Amino acid sequence: xxxxxxxxxxxxxxxxxxxxxxxxxxxxxxxxxxxxxxxxxxxxxxxxxxxxxxxxxxxxxxxxxxxxxxxxxxxxxxxxxxxxxxxxxxxxxxxxxxxxxxxxxxxxxxxxxxxxxxxxxxxxxxxxxxxxxxxxxxxxxxxxxxxxxxxxxxxxxxxxxxxxxxxxxxxxxxxxxxxxxxxxxxxxxxxxxxxxxxxxxxxxxxxxxxxxxxxxxxxxxx
Length: 222
Prior knowledge:
Number of domains: 2
Order of helices and strands: EEEEEEEEEEEEEEEEEEEEH
Helix content: under 10%
Radius of gyration: 26 Å
Strand content: 35-45%
Shape: elongated
Number of strands: 20
């Protein structure tokens, strides 16, 4: 006559050692795990992964870029770029009926914040559309022009620029599909741009963030 199955309670320590993909299970410490879904190991136990909260809904397609403007008084604005344009999504809510601040045919934007005596600014380019500059209240387009009229760049069309950065009070940006970078006079957001060819230092011809890092590394040397 067979005996009934009996259950035996046991305890196991929390997998504070984290994932172990090296040792076989038979030789694995009790504090290691082979699977950890939504848990993070910590010295005295495991922490459950936090959830998420929807902030801005109703945008068209996937959001490809998020840009943040930081004001000198500590306030900030958040901009999201979808398949239609640039939206101010600082406040949470439904943006299905919102009108974009600027139209955008390429949702992949690169941006930077810069400050001069006139205030703080968000500058962004995407290599297809006009560049943009935001002063905390108004978003304007950066376009080709004589460099004297407001929001115009001379010698280069902002439509071909990507990867802006601020260095030594100057705005720099990379001309896409090239090894050239363009820079403005100190403290200016528009004006007469001059170029500098970085040659072989730009292995991705301005297409990737690595070339932006090259700029930063070169600047750190001076």
